[in-house]
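Request: Have a read of the protein record below and say how the chain folds.
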Amino acid sequence: MKKFVIALAAVLFAGSMFAQTPEEKKAAKEAEKAAKAAEKAANKAAMDLYDKGYSFYDKSNTKMNEFNQNKQYEKDQAKVAAMQAKLNAEMYDLAKQGSPILGEALATGRIEEKKLFEGYHAQDFMLSQLINAELQHASKKEPFDTAFFAKAAMDMCDACHYQLKYGKTNDDQQKVIISQVKAKFPRLYTYLAYAVQFEIENKNLEGACKALDSYKNFPQKYPEIANEPSVANPEIPFSQFAFNIYYTAYQAKRFDICEKYFDEAIQFDDESSKAFVTQSRPQMYLQKGDTIAWTAAMKELIDNDPESETAEIAAQNLLAYYAGKSVDDMGKFADELIAKNPNSKIANYGKGFSFVARQKFAEAAKYYEKCVEIDPDYFDGNYQCGFCYYQIGLENGRKISDKKYASQAAADKEAETLVKSYLRKALPYFEKARELKPDDPSRWAFELKTIYNNLGMKDKAKSLPSAE
């Protein structure tokens, strides 16, 4: 019994919550009536707008029919051409006025369904006039509104799509139009390609991005023609346009757009373009002042192909970066690089430099010798290798001068062992450096002259140019 009472109380309570007073009922009816009136007014306004826009198509279509009728009886080709030019200009003006109005009406979603096919057909017709005129300007290399062309091309795709959606194949007139739309719809994909390129050339990056997104999404948005050959296998791949936008955006320092299209741009099957995208990304971060992202991007370049020239360039930049932080950081990173690619000339050079910075010339020489082994014509490797042995020789010379010997002969003997042996090791590397940069004696003449003099090669020493 208790359960029944509780349940009944709950029902009564709920009922009391939703009960309306006479005033509330009246207000609700008035609100409903006002909403219906507003809906009716909105629908009427949309249809009025539709009729206004459609009237421009009617006028344009009438003019075309008049021209075709007159043309049949005209034998003067010049006169026909003049009539055609006048008609095209008039039709363009009508389309320019009517298309935006009709487009606004169709976008309301309030147009009666039975009117949609004819509405989108009229819009298709007017947009064709506008697009053809802009294409003529483009073919003559005359200035034209690229943003307008891009929007018109995208709107025309929608017009074709909705004609196919709302057209009735049991209506003979509509059936003919549907057939024509199916034939031309795939070609509009090319219009979108033009739109992308026009916007890029005009450096309208936002417009180019919007057009490119439409180009990319075309097969998904219009599945009815996705399998058409020209759509399934486009003449211009998306990646090529992505690269063009990436390149233009990079030049304009629009790095947000570069980031958006990086993954697609790097897929473009062109080696020089791929190299530009790959190598520009770290520089982009550097210009933004984001050293963390720059470092990560440079390391990614190395990891992608440790033995490539690109990896060597990235390694060189990163070693310079770490050298600015500390010698230890530079040495540790050089070790990482050598582990990935033992034959990295730059990595071995960096490791050698980390030892030179700490005056550890014997350890450094091992890595510079590796540099020269990898690339015998590497000037910096030859010079540094010679420099290390030269410094070791000088160090040993200082040791000899600090020691007491029983005789000069004993001192000379140790000098021969400790000094001259290292200078002889240094000699071929400095001579190679001279061979590689004969016009820059400031890079090798001083050390080479010192070595010649110490090894008793006075004539060679005299033949050297000044180190200045």
The CA atoms of residues 6 and 12 lie 10 Å apart.
